[in-house]
Amino acid sequence: MNSLILSAATRFLAPLMLAYSLFILLRGHNEPGGGFIGGLVAATAFALYAKAEDTGAVRRAMRIAPELLSMLGLGAAVMAGVWGWWEGDAFLESVWPFLVVEDGKKEGLPVGSALLFDVGVYMVVVGAVTALFLALEDDASRSPDDEDADQSGER
Amino acid sequence: MELIMAALIGLMAAVSVYLMLAGNMLRFIVGLSLLSNAVNLAIFEAGRLSFAAPPFIAEGEKAPTGDVANALPQALILTAIVIGFGLLAFTLVLVYRLYGAFGTVEIDEIENAEPRG
Amino acid sequence: MAEAESPAGRAAGVRRLVPALLSALAAWWFFGFVPAVHGGETVFFVWDWAPQLGVSFAFAIDGLGLVFALLVTGIGALVLLYAAEYFRTHPQRDRLLVLLVLFELSMLGLVLADDALTLFLFWEGTTVTSFLLIGFDHEKAEARAKAVQALIVTGLGGVALLAGLLLAGQQTGTYRLSELGDYALTLRNGGMYQGVFWLVILGCFTKSAQIPFHYWLPNAMAAPTPVSAYLHSATMVKAGVYLLARLSPALSGTDLWMWTLTLTGAATMVLSSIWAMRQSDLKLGLAYTTVMGLGALTMMLGAGGEGAILAFCVFLIVHALYKASLFLVIGILDKKAGTREADGLSGLGRDMPLTWLVALLAGASMAGLPPFFGFIGKEAIYEGALHGDAPAALVAVAALLANAMMIAIAGAVALTPFTGEFKAKKAAPTDAHLFMWAGPAALALLGLGFGLAPGAAELLVAPMAASVAGEAMDVHLHLFGGVNLPLALSVVTFALGYVLWRRLPRTRESLALLEAGGARQGFRLLRGDRALRPDARPLGDFERSYDVFLRVLTGLSRETTALLQSGYLPRYLRVTMATMAGMTAAGLWVGGGWPSIEMGEAPGLMLLVVALIAVASLTLLMTARRLLLITSLGVVGAGVALIFALYGAIDVAITQLMVETLVVVIIAVALLKLPRIALARTAAAQRARLWNGAIGAAVGVAVTGALMAVMDGEIDRSLTDYFEKASATIAFGRNIVNVILVDFRALDTMGEIAVVAIAGLSALALLAARVRPMKDAEK
User: Fold this and answer.
1) ipTM topping 0.90
2) Which of B86, B92, B100 is the closest to A128 by Cβ?
3) How far is B16 from chain A (nearest CA, A)?
4) Is some CB atom of chain B closer than 8 A to the CB atom of C572?
């Protein structure tokens, strides 16, 4: 798709959406948001970028293969679980290394294994959705000649 | 409202099943998408409907003040939506490839997919 | 011998002895328990498994278990030593040794298990390892078929056994076998006795090859000889009688027990002895005598009374010692003289003196000659037969007939091949390697030693008998118990046995003739069924029932598969959906009919949204235009998101909106390449649409009804209440939905993101052939 307006707008919109998705991810524990929503926003940003430019541009901008990103996300979630196992006594038990609770008041930074887990969720959603979308887009936007050649080869 | 919602969900389920049975893969996908919406709504309704505040706890409080909506089905549905999307996308790609291989999306025309017993 | 010269070869040569060594160490360890167990003690090893269910990983070493453990590890060590030499150059020697060790461990677990489920676990372990061992020569179709047969017969028995044990556990409230005996009365009067009894019996009889399940055991001789010696004479096939003995305190004492075991045991004993005489293959003949031994043991357990229990214990040890020894001797003959056929072997005594000596020692014990342990065993059987609960005449006559035939077979194995004119397949047979004759020699000598010093055997037999009887027993073993009826019976046995042995070749021939001609064969020919079958078993072909069973089973599954797996997708879906609607309707009907619920408040905005979704849904139903489809889908999704938002589910609403956007985008991308939807106008298509409409409507009504029924009931908010209270205080988060997702129910979420990731990867794999790799994209 070669729309000048879309292309120009996306140049501003996509980074903004990405930044916003991170914001949503991080505030998710207390306000509306979280890994799922953040991941979907980021995936939408990449989809938009792919529509405005092309899939190669998205792949270059991501720097990492989206399917790899989703696997890393799964790994991060598992790590968060193991962390809880190591420090606490159950797989996925949440751990808050920078948080001290005194008299019901919490002091310190509310960052812990739950956040790592949510980041993992975010990465999985971004990675899986983007990978799928890019592959589909790549495939669908090939010229009909390729398509025919492919098909005759397959039959 | 509960009654109307139940009827709506029934209608959505009926339409989606009809579409999924139609034997055309495109209609199948549309039906699948509709069905996952219907199921999500059903879970949501089963968790009781109320025009209450979203389930958030105010800063400094230990529990929600006043009535809030049931958080449990919301958590279930939230993941169900994303999974439903994953499933739908996968099915779509499957149909897409099927068309590439057989040149049709009509089940009756795909004969050598599985030998009939 | 080249193997032993290189260092690596020597290492391999030593390695092959490791299993035997380990097994010997285990036997030594178990031997250490003899004084304690003889003193009446039972040593327990218990670990919790599923304490909520009363299931534990429990082991007990009592008299019965200890004797079996010693047999398993002791004979195991000797057989492993033997096998290491027997398979010295076999390319798959290590596989065999590993399988044998695995089997040994399973068997050990089985005889020491004190928990019903632990026992079952190891029981199945022996079934599976036995399957692998019988099918060791897996390149032979015959070995595979026999292995499968053994697996099916004993596996089915295993299922029955599990059911029986569970029933018994439910009735008594304990799964500990050592406690079951205390509940014998509860079990007998509880109404479940029949069920428990028959299920357990089925398991034990199949495992221990009792008629009519005996046929798998001779067939299992497809296994290599060391395997047969170990599994199918001394250990695995005894698992069935072991369990009968183990459960005897809990289940025995009824007429049902007495008659079933005595009659089955007697029939098995006599018939298998006749079949044994018919065999010209020495190994096969021995296999049938194993069936005879198992029948005798079963019969003794059934006969009941102190004498019979004593006979059971003594004969079990006697049989294990001589049978394993003789099997190993046959293996040596097979290896060194080149054949196992009775007609092809004679006069080997001069070339193989050691082998002959061992065969003589073991054969004498088998024949029950004094002063061998076998004599004590035979006397004990007669003693038990005469003073048991079962009719003495029946038991004694069966024992007499079978014992006489045992003498004939013992002669055929221990004398005939070694005396007379020289005849063998290989030119210069010699004695075997030390490793190969050490095992049978040790076992045969034990048979002599126990006979000369019965006091040593008492150490083992007394606690064993106490375990079987469920109470302490006064045990005294004598070589010579005075001139009495058992002695007289022994004398008759010897006379009869001698005659049978002298006439054995002719008996064999006449049995073969009986089988070749005879009424059954004539009947078969009349039916035009099969011509003469040279390998048919005489006097009843029970294996046919197995064949028929298998044929019916496979036929039945083929029919059902054809019915259910039509291969036509819409039919699968129709059946699934109709079933779902039907089940829901049935549930509603059982639950009291169509539910009714309050209308509740219905604001105008909500009604509008609902109407929008309904119209969009119906549009999906009607239209075949792709753009309209996509738009309507988007409208439905947005409407649903609006409902979520209005009812206080803000996170869900956002997610729904995002997903709906992406759905529309990817469907749009794909639809560009997909064809238009064309609705067929044929009559068949119309009819199908009618059906689909009916099923769809049924599902819709069922869903509405089910949902109304749910709304009619009370909701349990305890989980939600907990999450609301704990969200801020424990998990330090104020967005309760997110806290549930990443903390309280994080494991669920982890599974769900795994699904998402896998869906993405799978789609990628499907498209892979057409995806440009990243490198290309950068160019």
Assistant:
1) yes
2) B86
3) 24
4) no
Looking at this protein, which amino acid is placed at residue C508? R
Contact C743 A94 (CB under 8 A): yes
Enter the tokens of residue B99: 């068309």
Tokens of residue C293, six digits = 């031994």
* pLDDT value of residue C771: 41
Neighbours of chain C (3+ CB pairs under 8 A): A, B
Tell me, what DSSP letter sits at residue C44? E
- pLDDT tier for residue A104 given thresholds of 50, 70 and 90: low
How far is residue A1 from each of residues A50, B96, C246, C630, C659, measured CA to CA in Å? 9, 21, 80, 19, 22
Segments of chain B with pLDDT less than 50 = 113-117
Contact call for residues C42 and C61 (beta carbons, < 8 A): yes
How far apart are the CA of B27 and the nearest CA of chain C, in angstroms?
Answer: 8
Enumerate residue ranges in chain C where pLDDT < 50.
Answer: 1-5, 522-523, 525-539, 771-779
3-state helix, strand, coil in chain C (%, to 5): 75, 5, 20
Domain ranges of chain C: 254-516
Alpha-carbon Rg of chain A, whole angstroms?
20
Q: What is the mean pLDDT of residues A96-103?
A: 74
Give me the residue from C562, C607, C699 closest to B17, CB to CB: C699
Nearest by Cα to C515 from C492, C488, C494, C538: C538
What is the interface size between A and B, counted as CB pairs within 8 Å? 29
- Contacts A151 to B, Cβ<8 Å: 100-101, 103
Domains in chain B, please, with CATH? 2-51+69-108 (1.10.287.3510)
Is the distance from CB of B89 to CB of C769 less than 8 angstroms? no
d(CA C363, CA C318): 11
The torsion angles phi and psi of C115, rounded to 5 degrees, stand at -110, 135
Select from C5, C22, C769, C40 the least CA-distant residue to C469.
C40
**Can you give the pLDDT at residue B75?**
92
Which of A:99-138 have CB within 8 Å of B? 104, 125, 128-129, 132, 135-136
C742–A121: do the CB atoms touch at under 8 Å? yes
Contact at 8 Å (CB) between C664 and C616? no
SS3 content of chain A, % helix, strand, coil (to 5): 70, 5, 25
Chain C residues closer than 8 Å to B26 by CB: 626, 629, 671, 674, 677
Sign, Cα dihedral of C178, C179, C182, C186 = negative
Kindly list the partner chains of chain B, i.e. chains with 3 or more CB atom pairs below 8 Å: A, C
Contact C688 B23 (CB under 8 A): yes
Q: How far apart are CA C672 and CA A14, in angstroms?
A: 25
Chain B: nearest CA to C700, how far in angstroms?
Answer: 4
Name the residue of chain A whose CA is nearest to B86's CA.
Answer: A129
CA neighbor of C258 nearest in space, from C318, C177, C197, C185: C197
Any chain A CB within 8 A of the CB of C715?
Answer: no
Q: Please, what is the end-to-end C-alpha distance for chain B in angstroms?
A: 48
Contact C231, C152 (CB under 8 A): no
Amino acid at C12: A
Tokens at residue C252, please? 């025995």
Amino acid identity of B11? L
Q: CB–CB of B85 and A129 under 8 A?
A: yes
- Chain C contact probe: residue of B16, B25, B32, B34 with most C CBs at under 10 A: B34
Interface test with A, best of C730, C742, C755 (most A CBs within 10 A): C742
CA distance C629 to C613: 13
Per-residue confidence (pLDDT) for residue B44, from 0 to 100 = 93
Using DSSP's 3-state secondary structure scheme, residue C229 falls into helix
- The CA distance from C404 to C386, in Å, is 18
